[in-house]
Structures are given as structure tokens and as C-alpha cells.
Design brief:
The structure is a single chain. With 455 residues, this protein is an alpha+beta fold. Helices cover 46% and strands 24% of the residues. The chain is built from 13 helices and 17 strands. The strands form 5 sheets. Strands 11, 12, 13, 14, 15 and 16 form a 6-stranded antiparallel beta sheet that branches. Strands 7-6-8-9 form a 4-stranded antiparallel beta sheet. It has a 3-stranded antiparallel beta sheet with strand order 2-1-3, with helices on one face. A hairpin with a 2-residue loop joins β8 and β9. The longest helix is centred in the N-terminal third of the chain and has 30 residues. The protein is elongated and about 90 Å long.
Length: 455
């Protein structure tokens, strides 16, 4: 079931992203007066499709089929990828039949002005970025921003990234690379994406004295690529009952939703795990519990069950929720998209420098499927965030100046503009073949990485 679930979410994610990307090319071609002969979801053999001339049909169209300017909208055998075939353009299909059909036609790609060609070629990438901005904007508008107002370290996991940096329990983080931090969100942002690729200089207050923790970029990224967890838990927080199950140990002791747990068997509860550990350590035993309800402090007895549970759903604070209007959410969506683009380019830079190994960072369909399944299990917002980040990754990949990708086509158009003539048919075919070869090598490499990683 796990495999089927991963495949399902892979098809959903890639289907949406590819559709949006190819729709960008399609609508731009139409607006620029070009004929789009095929709009395909999937690759390989045509399974079914529709066009105005022959209507709905299954299987391949006749070899001599002429759509007379009408697009054949089709679904193909392999549910990964897709394409738009624009009349008069040498693309990955290697179709050059149009060069043998007489004079250049006004509806062909090759007949259009340079600026029109560039718009059509870049439209897919632009649509993927717009999709990411739209998703991030929607998430911000509907959910807002939940901020945890603490900078105190509650726990440090052994052999984690945090332990290697040198964090101790009860450290209060003051600044990271001279940027003051005021919330737990600030700490996570600066430790991960914002300062990615930089040495980390972290100022903490420990036992009323300021201490500086330093970790070099190379050492930090090595821990990241080794899949070490960050290993930080917030401290200085209160733990409250979000829900209380009926007839549970918690309900029998008088706990109600909204009550804050203060102590359990004289152990101060300042982190989520401190409560969980205290409960598990006393399963089946009657112990003292102190909790706060509004301005009243209540003492009671509680007996965790044999599974080490007391029957409450937990929340923690102090937290506050920021709500944003549409235009504020749009601004946040643009900002998050920009930060994602920046992070991806920082990662590329570290790969080129050799700080991060490509085999540890690049993944293919298997990794995407696994991550899509994980994000879907966490909830809709995490799944949509993953889709937005993947959409930006797809945009950046396609804009790279590699033959057969959008960026490679753009380079060819710019070269033709400079030399003031169209490159020969054989030259374009050769360029496409080289590009497809490079893409095939990349696919083999990522598949190998996926297999080595998961199997």
C-alpha cells in the first residue's frame, strides 16, 4: 500500500506541475499566433485524445493525419512528463517534416519575431513560478503564520546537528550571524535556509554568560547530507491539553481542554518531551499532577495507562497567530518563492564547489514519490508546500541552458538573433540529440541515486 500511495501522489504532483508548465507554452503560442499541433500529458504512445477534426478517439492517429490547425489534446502511455508540439519548431520530437512542405507559414514558430519566440519558450517556467506563488499565497491567506515565542533550547538530541554545533539545554539563543532572533521560527529559519552555505556564528546566553558557538559551512553541510536531524526542541514553553479523551486518566483527574500542565510527579513540564517522558516513566502508577486553569492552580492524582498515555492531545505555547489580508499574503507568497529560488541556487553552488556531493543531493522520481507521500500524510498544507517547492525546482531545471530544455532553446534563439539567420536543420537536430543524451544521463544518475538511497 505504501508503494501504491507513493506512486499515486507522484502522478498527482507531476501531472499538475507538467500540465501547468505545458499550458504556459500552449497559451503563449496561441496568443502569438502559432499553431499548437499537440498538447500531451504523459509521454510515449497516444492512448486517447480529442481534436475538432476527428473528435474523440483511442490509440494512434493516422500517420498522414492533418489537424488543419486544430490541437490534438491527448493522454499518453507513460504518466510522467508531457509536451506541446508547436508548428515549425525543431524540438525533442526531432520532427523536421515541416521543412519539406514548401515555404515558411505565418503560423509557424520559425516565422515569428524573436521576442514572441522567447515569450513562448519561457512561458512554461513563468507558469511554474506563478503556481508556486499562488500556492504560497493561498497557504498564507488561509492559515496565516504561527509563531512560537521562545528562543530557549529545551532539549538537544544526542549525535544530532545541534549537538555537533555545541548547543546545551537551557541555552538562550541571542543571534545567528549577527541577526537577532526573537522567536523559535527565527532560529529554525536562520539555521536552515537563510544562512545555508555560510559559516554559522551563534551567540547564546548560557548560565548568565554570553557564549559563541561556531560551525564551519563544510562541517555543517556534511552533517546535513548525512541525513542527521537538527535535534533541537524548544524550551521555556507551557504544555496544554488541546483535547481530553472521555474516561481517560486525564479526564478522571479533572483535566479539561485548555488546562496547562505545570508539573508531573514534581517534574517541571517545560517541553513536550518532558511531559511524555514523565508519563512513560510512570505508566500504571498513581502520581501527582499540577495544572493551571485560568488563574487557578489545581493539584490532583493521575494514573497513566499501561501504554504510557493519559489521553490528551497536546498543544504548546506561548504562540501567536498572524493573519494576513490578500495583498499581504501575496507579498509573503512572492517572498517565500524568492527564498526557495535562492536556496536552490545556493545548493547548486555548494554542489559545484564540492561541499555537497551530487549523489547526496539529487533525486529522481522515487525520491519525489516518497517525499510526496510523506507530505500528503502530514496534511494538505504540507503537501501543497512541497508541490510549490517542486514547481520552482522544475522551473529552474527547465531554464538551464541545456539543449532540449527551455533554456537551451532560448540560447539557440539568441544565437540566431546575433548571427541574423536560422541555424541549419542538421545543426538543430544534433543539438537536440546532445541535449537529450545529457538529460538521459541525468535521469540514469538520479535513478541510481534513488535505488541506492531506498534499496
Amino acid at each position: 500500500m505504501e508503494v501504491l500511495s507513493s506512486i499515486f501522489y507522484l502522478i498527482i504532483v507531476l501531472g499538475i506541475l507538467v500540465f501547468v508548465h505545458e499550458f504556459g507554452h500552449f497559451i503563449a503560442a496561441k496568443l502569438c499566433g502559432m499553431r499548437a499541433e499537440i498538447f500531451a500529458l504523459g509521454m510515449g504512445m497516444r492512448l486517447l485524445g480529442y481534436n475538432k477534426k476527428s473528435g474523440f478517439s483511442f490509440g494512434k492517429l493516422p500517420k498522414d493525419f492533418d489537424g488543419e490547425g486544430h490541437t490534438d489534446y491527448r493522454i499518453c502511455l507513460l504518466p510522467i512528463g508531457g509536451y506541446v508540439k508547436i508548428a515549425g519548431m525543431v524540438d525533442e520530437s526531432m520532427d523536421t517534416e515541416f521543412t519539406k512542405n514548401g515555404e515558411m507559414q505565418p503560423y509557424e514558430f520559425r516565422a515569428k519575431k524573436t521576442w514572441q519566440k522567447l515569450i513562448v519558450l519561457s512561458a512554461g517556467v513563468i507558469m511554474n513560478v506563478i503556481l508556486a506563488i499562488a500556492i504560497f499565497t493561498g497557504i498564507t491567506y488561509s492559515v496565516g503564520n504561527v509563531v512560537l515565542k521562545t528562543t530557549i533550547i529545551g532539549e538537544v538530541e544526542k549525535k544530532s546537528i545541534a549537538s555537533k554545533i555545541g548547543f546545551h539545554e537551557n541555552d538562550k539563543v541571542i543571534s545567528i550571524n549577527n541577526t537577532q532572533v526573537k522567536t523559535w521560527n527565527d532560529i529554525l529559519l536562520n539555521l536552515t535556509s537563510k544562512e545555508f552555505g555560510n559559516d554559522l556564528n551563534i551567540k547564546v546566553n548560557r548560565n548568565d554568560k554570553d557564549t559563541v558557538l561556531i560551525i564551519r559551512n563544510k562541517a555543517f553541510l556534511k552533517l546535513v547530507t548525512e541525513k542527521k536531524s537538527l535535534g533541537l526542541m524548544p524550551g521555556g514553553i507551557h504544555t496544554a491539553a488541546l483535547t481530553v479523551n472521555q474516561n481517560s486518566p486525564a479526564s478522571k483527574s479533572g483535566i479539561q481542554p485548555g488546562d496547562t500542565i505545570l508539573t508531573l510527579n514534581d517534574v517541571n513540564i517545560s517541553t513536550l518531551s518532558s511531559l511524555q517522558n514523565a508519563v512513560k516513566a510512570n505508566k500504571g502508577k498513581e502520581i501527582e499532577i499540577t495544572y493551571k486553569r485560568k488563574n487557578s492552580v489545581i493539584q490532583s492524582k493521575i494514573r497513566p495507562n499501561e501504554s504510557g498515555l493519559i489521553g490528551i492531545g497536546l498543544t504548546f505555547g506561548p504562540i501567536y497567530k498572524e493573519k494576513f489580508g490578500f495583498f499581504q499574503s501575496l507579498s509573503k507568497g512572492v517572498q517565500t518563492s524568492y527564498e526557495t529560488i535562492t536556496l536552490i541556487f545556493k545548493s547548486f553552488r555548494q554542489i559545484i564547489k564540492g561541499t555537497i556531493k551530487a549523489k547526496d543531493s539529487l533525486g529522481g522520481p522515487i525520491m519525489i514519490a516518497d517525499q510526496a507521500n510523506q507530505m500528503a500524510s502530514r496534511g494538505l498544507m504540507d503537501f501543497l508546500s512541497f508541490m510549490a517547492m517542486l514547481s520552482i525546482s522544475l522551473a529552474i531545471l527547465n531554464i538551464l541552458p541545456i539543449p532540449a530544455l527551455d533554456g537551451g532553446h532560448i540560447v539557440i534563439i539568441l544565437i540566431e538573433k546575433i548571427i541574423r539567420r536560422e541555424l541549419g536543420e542538421k545543426t538543430k537536430i544534433l543539438i537536440q540529440q546532445i541535449g537529450l543524451g545529457l538529460i538521459l544521463l541525468l535521469m540514469v544518475f538520479t535513478f541510481y541515486n534513488d535505488i541506492a538511497r531506498f534499496f
